[in-house]
Task: inverse folding
């Protein structure tokens, strides 16, 4: 797994110590780390925001679910929305999955594919709804992303 500096988001070679680029100490406790990541969602560079969204999902920071849903519902950059869909699929919980059902009808097929995939993985009623939505999707890629997860 790749780690990023909590201050400048440079790539790190290990999880501890200092950032080679900005010198920031990396040994924050989980609470500080989560708060810092959530603030970084407002970073001016989209690529950095994308990394932050990825990390929020990877670390399963449930406090960020509201922020991620906000991105899913209102962000205009489809790459950021796609990353938010992936993060919410990793964190799960009813609130995240309900937002992914909305995203399964997003205007970007990348986002729809990602949302469908996450819902299928979540299983149960979520999987049923995802398959139903995907069946009527105009994009072959979206229909495939549902089928690929069905055994
Ligand atoms: Zn740094």
Result:
């Amino acid at each position: 797994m790749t780690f990023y500096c909590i201050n400048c988001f440079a790539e790190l070679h290990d999880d501890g110590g200092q950032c080679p680029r900005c010198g920031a100490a990396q040994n924050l406790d989980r609470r500080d780390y989560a708060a810092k990541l959530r603030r970084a969602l407002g970073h001016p560079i989209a690529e950095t925001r994308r990394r932050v969204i990825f990390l929020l999902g990877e670390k399963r920071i449930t406090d960020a679910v509201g922020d991620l849903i906000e991105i899913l519902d209102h962000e205009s950059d489809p790459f950021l929305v796609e990353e938010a869909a992936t993060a919410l699929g990793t964190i799960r919980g009813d609130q995240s999955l309900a937002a992914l059902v909305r995203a399964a009808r997003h205007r970007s097929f990348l986002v729809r594919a990602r949302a469908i995939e996450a819902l299928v993985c979540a299983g149960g009623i979520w999987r049923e709804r995802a398959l139903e939505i995907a069946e009527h999707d105009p994009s072959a890629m979206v229909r495939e992303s549902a089928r690929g997860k069905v055994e």
Q: What stands out?
A: The domain at 3-147 is CATH 1.25.10.10 (Leucine-rich Repeat Variant). Residues 5, 7-8, 10, 19, 21-22, 24 surround zinc ion (CB under 6 Å).
